[in-house]
Amino acid sequence: MGNCFESCSERNVNEDENVGSSVNSKPSSRGDSDTGRSSNLSYPWSLKPLITRKSEASSALPAPTKERDIMPSHHLKSFTLDELKNATGNFCPESLIGEGGFGFVHKGCVNGGPGIELAVAVKKLKTEGFQGHKEWLREVNYLGRLHHPNLVKLIGYSLEDENRLLVYEYMPNGSLENHLFERRSNVLSWSLRMKVAIGAARGLCFLHEAKDQVIYRDFKAANILLDSGFNAKLSDFGLAKEGPTDDRSHVTTEVIGTQGYAAPEYLATGHLTTKCDVYSFGVVLLEILCGRRAIDKTRAREEENLVEWAKPYLRDKRKVFRIMDTKLVGQYPQKAAFMMSFLALQCIGDVKVRPSMPEVLSLLEKVPTPRHRKSRSKSFGANSSSMSSKRFLRHN
């Protein structure tokens, strides 16, 4: 099995060399991830929805799904349970890299070709799980047909009796959530934060512009996984929903998602549109800027909700520095920081004027990247930021 059982908590060193030109080219508990307490492992599949108007759940799994319920895809391999037991050392404790309401995730190795061992993450549904079946099927059917550099690759699945498993490409740098909020993680540089934001935006754009539009519905830092080069890939499609059809403006559905990331109009009406994903993207932009969780109950009451706390500072370039992540110790370009903050403000704004994801991506790609690795910011009142800000605002 080689080194397939290495802990996913091991991090690659953040290096700006990984950036290059590519920067421009789920009320119930979801564990500790939304309370400010860091768990050892924070993979997205270890989490459950926080917001629900009515339960999708039943106390036991439905009758086992048959292969015919899975959309045909030549991209996916059907694994036997024995194959995945062998790949993970019979799901031994040493291979465990994630755990939650859905089930367990183990690191393993599968045959990737002649003489090739492919590192994978194997998600195993708890047989007594109350909501995992529908999410498992959505995951297979969406990732079986959707392929993009900024979506995590689903390699295959296993379906035997009550056992349901998914096999993904292994992402050695874990999630964006790990890097932003876990104290033991290396600080994510400004350039890498920009790279991750742009990559995640590209993934959302692909979903929104697909022939059969997909609304992600659970965009958050925990669902953005990072490969060895810190390229962002969206994961966990268990809550994804088909977009509106027949000239309808929205999909009406039960409210489900993650507290702090869901758009207010969706919470109020259950009307789901791509603009709901845009709102969630804006929240993640704030997390990237501030180094704070969307909801953090360990903070003072007025600072628990990131959007409410940060919003008064986002429009004024003289105040933005007050919300910036102190772990960056000033090593970020002031122009770029204000442009990012104003874009975040637009994303979390009223749905009637909220930009689309293609518009968001276009603006993100116009944010200038630093010329030097260790350029320190100056006062946000400097006149040098005015021209860039004006150009940025003219796009809105």
UniProtKB/TrEMBL annotation:
Protein name from the UniProt record: non-specific serine/threonine protein kinase
Catalytic activity: L-seryl-[protein] + ATP = O-phospho-L-seryl-[protein] + ADP + H(+); L-threonyl-[protein] + ATP = O-phospho-L-threonyl-[protein] + ADP + H(+)
Region (Disordered), start-end ranges: 1-41, 367-396
EC number from the UniProt entry: 2.7.11.1
Superkingdom field: Eukaryota
Localization of this protein: Cell membrane
Enzyme superclass (EC): transferase
One Pfam family, short name: PK_Tyr_Ser-Thr
Alphabetized Gene3D superfamilies for the sequence: Phosphorylase Kinase, domain 1 (3.30.200.20), Transferase(Phosphotransferase) domain 1 (1.10.510.10)
Family: Belongs to the protein kinase superfamily.
The keyword Coiled coil belongs to this UniProt entry's keyword annotation: no
